[in-house]
Amino acid sequence: MILYIVRHAAAVPYGDPDWPDFDRPLTEKGIARFSQFIQALATADFAPGIVATSPLARCRQTAEILSRMVPRQPPVVAREELAPASDLPGLTSWVAQAAADCDQVAWVGHAPDVGHLAAALIGHGSSQIHFSKGAVAAIQFDGLPARGEGELCWLAMPKLLGC
Hints:
Elements: E1 2-7, H1 28-42, E2 50-53, H2 57-69, E3 76-78, H3 88-98, E4 104-109, H4 113-122, E5 136-140, E6 151-156
Parallel strand pairs: 1-4, 2-3, 2-4
Antiparallel strand pairs: 1-5, 5-6
């Protein structure tokens, strides 16, 4: 299985008086840049069969863009395990129950959690991997995702592809 870990695209800044943190949306620039980025990735076999997302607005929007831009237009499922302070055991359990038949799965979450999740899955749970806004990491597993069992195949950010 390939697990894609995605940091949400650029959102309205934290502390904006018009938006409580839970409801902060993506910016227009964030939407455009992430859409272009995912369109480019989709031409290179990026095709998750299901997308799990934090329930916060900026992640849900990011997940919906991702779903619209890839060929199979996978379902988007909000998961509390991807809210800030992500729950890796809960996420791997969810994949085993709900997405075990998918070859590719995506999780959309927040920094610094996405960096911690990626590090734990490739075997360095105390490390941090930096994810810029809208970045995507591909982690390969022989079976289902499990702590320390993955191999980081690539980590790409919109800027890398000129988005």
